[in-house]
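step: validate -> pass
step: tokenize input -> pass
step: predict -> running
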Amino acid sequence: MIRTPLRPLARILSARSRGENPDRIEAENLRLRHEAMRDRARARAEVRLLMLACGFVAGFGLVAMRMGVLAATPVAEPRRSGSAATIQAQRADIVDARGRVLATNLVTHALYAHPRAMVDPVRAARGLAQIFPDLKEDDLLRQFTGNRAFLWIKRRISPEQMQAVHEIGEPGLLFGPRETRIYPNGRIAAHVLGGATFGAEGVHSAEVVGSAGIERAYDARLRDPARLDEPLRLTIDTTVQAAVTDVLRAGMTMLNAKGAAAIVMEARTGAIVAMVSLPDFDPNDRPPPPVSGDPADSPIFNRAVQGVYELGSVMKVFPVAQALELGHVTPETMVNTQGPMMLGRFRVRDFRNYGPALSVTDVIVKSSNIGTARLISAIGPVRQEAFLRNLGFLDPVTLELSEAPTGRPKLPRRWGDIAAATISYGHGLAASPLHLAVGYAALVNGGLRVTPTLVAGAETPPPVRVMSEATSRAMRTMLRRTVTDGTAKLAEVAGYALGGKTGTADKMRPTGGYYDDRVMATFAGAFPMQDPRWVVVVSLDEPVETSGTEARRTAGWTAVPVTGEIVRRIGPLLGLRPVIEPSPPGGVIPVRH
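step: predict -> pass
step: emit ->
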């Protein structure tokens, strides 16, 4: 840039020649220079202000755009970001079919210690041992006076225990918040819910993870932050579950049984309304798994799903249904029941002598071993195996429980003619009560095998036809007659038209063979038989009825009356209105004045 001189020589000489003051020229040039400098400074300032204004407009525009995007985005649970792993402590609720809470989270506290910050370790150890009887004062004192800087004392404490620890006044005893899983109904549906425990832990939070049952099978769903406000709804009805549990527990006690199981399931959908296994437990204080002995002796063993037993005469309905389906017989066809029946070197006998022949219907009503063995001999082991496979008896039942895959049926090593005959009347093939419920549902619902479920709205495979509606209709008639005229008369409940079949099987020894005086007593059936809606299965382990002069162990004296009482209790709870069946023509109707 070329600067203009303040006193240009030519103008100075010219001004002096004219007698003017040359200093005025310098002053004028100085003024012009300052004005030019001021104009340039103003232009720079205006450019800077314009740029600053544009920056403010752009910044507020971006904020406004981000606010608009957030407003239009669905609400999601915020997640903390960082290099450290986060602990997901929350867990969705579990509710029953009517929305009643079965499992939820409750804020509680854990107790830990900083031994180096303790003022009086002896007093702290003595006070904690008094508050928590399972803790030993000597062990606590040794830990408090050792080299450890941190020590967990209790993973979960009650508010009363927390207050008692506060009153010790020890600054080295500290509390950390915890989300704890709570089961407000205690033992009700314990085997269905399973239980939960702590996973990854920190001082201020801990994971709550499923350890068994539905809690474990749906662990990822229950811990999903996006679905914490969406409870997992089960098909279990708490009221029905409680009623079945009460009746089954009373029956188990009165009959001196070692254990018991019961299932109530919708025949058309497979939705399980009640599933009980006894002995049971409180999921708020779930016992540890057994490390020795028979797993079935543990209260956490789910007999309804994991219990695999030979089921006895409840299996006789399936060879009869298959014979009807193949067209070999009709319900009125006479079957040779002359005994004993020889199978190689083995003899098949009936509980009592039923004469030379019985109709197919009476084979079920009177429960003839020989009759079902005769029917299956005409069918053959290959077709019998295929039929039972279609009914689901040869594989674990698919169910939303972590224990379900362990309920694997026990099959004969060689499925020949002898195995086929023994299986036809309930020996040689071991399955669970849940298998039986699925099989009986197909018998009474029109011939469709359904997939059982414990989760409302669960996507299950579509029903598979395994027999015709005509066969199912004939089987319903036979099952109803078994209750009115056969081995299950003690299950009759006026107005509910219960039908079913009894089964008494000698209990297998763990080392092989069978006990002489221990049985598995089972009843399987459905109601109301004019339009079956509910399948019910009751199983008792080693029951003994002792009201008479002799001990009675058969299902007709044990499982049958328990089932009748269950139906009497739950019928109204299921919304079923009793329907009095018409009396036979010419019958006398008693009238009470």
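step: describe -> The first strand starts at residue 94 and ends at 95.
step: cleanup -> pass
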